[in-house]
Design brief:
By secondary structure, the protein is an all-alpha fold. About 75% of the residues lie in helices and about 0% in strands.
Amino acid sequence: MKYETRSTFETLEAWKMARNLRKEIAGLVKTFPQEEKFRLTDQMIRASRSITANIAESHGRYHYQENIQFCRQARGSLYEMLDHITVALDEDYIEQKVYENLRNMFFENIKVINGYINYLKNQKETTQLT
């Protein structure tokens, strides 16, 4: 049986971009030293998963304000990830070019999440007016 994905979080551009970022992080942390397995590596994996999970959970909320709040949490996890990649750069686990590429991905993700939050705010206002 084929499931329709038309009305799920899987169609959201914010979730798709965050998924790509999550996959990028998952591959990257495999190159980190073993002693970071339960420190930076674990934090980066959890933060990257939190981004997509919060976007998915927001989509399951039927009140705009709840939806917006989960998107804000996803945005917070993105900023947490930015700090983690800065640590990875400072500890020489990644090169400057990798850092810059990831940083660009983060800010593109943030831009899309902010756009989605603004869309939800506008929908909330439009719904309240009718």
